What does this fold into?
Amino acid sequence: MILTQDLTNPLSFKNEETTIFNIQDYCVDDGTGIRTVVFFKGCYLQCIWCSNPESQLFEPEIFYSEIKCKRCRKCEKACTYSSIDFSNLECPIINRKKCSICESKICTQVCPENALRTVGYSISVLDLFERVKKNSLLFRNSGGGITLSGGEPLAHTDFIREFLKKTMAIGFSVGIETCGFFDWRKVADFIQKIDFFFFDLKIMDAKLHKELTGVNNEKIHMNLKKLSQIDVNKITISVPIIPRINDDLENIKKTINFCTELGIKKIRFLKYHEWGKGKYEELGRQYSLKIHSESQENGLRTFETLAREAGLQVNII
It folds into this structure.
């Protein structure tokens, strides 16, 4: 299911605030050293294999766990928008269109079993800076720092611009994990200040990319070309390997060739997993990717060999 989002209307920020859905400390696969990863909410891609579907929409959402729910109906009584209907106790209904306009999310506050919970919350630049600054000693001792992820962090340009001013002032390393679909004009004044990029190349075929992610890959490729002209050494290409979607040799060879044409020297292949599959049900969505987990080791080793033969540094995660 591809969710509809406005690709032309930029986010507006009030008091330098934006919406995130998680902050994770002690991460070691998201850049050098030990890092704190900040997950921004909202992405213009809607990849059907996405393991963090709660990152796709820009506004806060409700997770509902049917297993935890005791059908006490306290949430139904508390909801001022009549978006929760427990008249059929076997199959309660949450009208998420109505739910999306509610800012208080009072239903989550009255639920005694934590069956309803909010994912996504507003945070200011100053509050985020104070939060990550607590790890400053850990960053310095390990050569780590902060990695901005998502969702798509570069959809939150005004927020990141101000955040960078604060982190740069005390010498924090800041990297970005990006799907590549962002407005270059809005990042041109600060993108060179980012220490490194994990840049996704999911599918090289434009038609298939549009079908499976919701957007064409032309802007992604153009942004990567512009970024490579600044400093190719800052870029690591990330390729999520999805069985029978993009794990064919033709796609991998085209990806590797595109990297070498741009002078990019680093690539990482990300193993497919289904850890986020249960989140779709909690969000009232369907996980539409119809594949089974299978061993990827042989294919990944083949891709690793191809990339190394092309002169790329390779990592498999």
